[in-house]
Design a protein that fits this description.
single chain; about 425 residues; eight-stranded mixed sheet; two-stranded antiparallel ribbon; 16 helices; about 10% strand; globular
Amino acid sequence: CVPGMLMAMMRLNIPSVLVSGGPMLPGTLTPGKQGDLITLFEGVGRVRNGQMSEEKLTQWEERACPGCGSCAGMFTANSMNCLAETIGVALPGNGTIPAVHAARVRLAKQAGMRVMDLVKRNIRPRDIVTRGAVENAIAVDMALGCSTNTTLHLPAIFHEAGLDIDLSVFDEVSRKSPNLCKLSPAGHHYMVDLENAGGIPAVMSELDKLNLIRKDCMTVTGKTVGENLKDRNARILDTDVIHTIDNAYSKEGGIAILRGSLAPDGAVVKQSAVAPEMMRREVTARVFESEEDAMHAILDGKIKPGDGVVVRYEGPKGGPGMREMLSPTAAITGMGLGKDVALFTDGRFSGGTNGAAIGHISPEAANGGPIALVRDGDRILVDIPNRKLDLLVDEAELARRRAELVPPQKECPYPVLRRYASMVSSADSGAMYKKV
């Protein structure tokens, strides 16, 4: 709900402070082994593959999510909470203080006091959500390795704030912002580890060493970003969790924007969670018209190393609503195929997704994009370092397929979704309503 709350703040433009419920603690699955929701999704694939018993999966299910709060890793909810803090519409600590900590209650009380001061000083959301705040958010996004859903939610929020920003800014910032953290699902650390290592202020202070943080931006504290960092004596407290810029996981950020003949208007991948073997790879297309069909094929063992699972007609218009593909991506990993199989979709992914999961392919299939023309057996080139995503089929053949294309007709019994499908823009512009 964080993106919706931020967009409402932009529309109303009244002094306000966003307060989240806070992240959950990870679960202890067995002595010495922690896990979270994604551990369970991947466990389904391991059970189907004979690598784990159903009894053990049931035991993990009872332990993986041990309390209240948003999921324990750097998934979509926590990603947006952290970026709300970075933008300045939430107080320092909002993104990382666990839901069960007393500090979360103190933060909520402080938020109420801050709102009254903001009213007194007439500081409004659009005084905070500026171009500089946007650049701060994207830089931190890249450092943390946030969910690919940030490339949907942030452009939508920026649109409400009257800022003209599209996917290209993510790639521009990614190329100069190092990846400093590998939180679940990309690594073995969790949100509570990030909090104990110094939280978002520590990440921002480290990025500031590369002049990637605009410290003059106003925040809901009534102070600038720079003043907040100074007040908190922001610094890294655990360099195993938050790497320094001299020991970054990579020189580029966690998200990459790919373009090419399969995605002329762009596609999104969390490159910080992709195995080295899949950073550049040719795969053979296995095409499915829905998430459910792809899921059955994966769990039935029909997907083999070297395949590229194509799930289409799941975009903003085609879904309609752009469902997330957590189940297929987790099943691929659970089946032991994470280093050998890619997944391509005009839909989106959960923040818990890892592997060569390439989403938001634009134009989407329902708008006649090239993904609608892919057929079983086609070769697809993934080249993340060079930001390329190409369907290796000649133009004459694609033209012939385009002339024969008959999009499937999905039944949609809900008038609100039919209206949404008729008016929604592409994923590369935040899946907003089209301008009229």
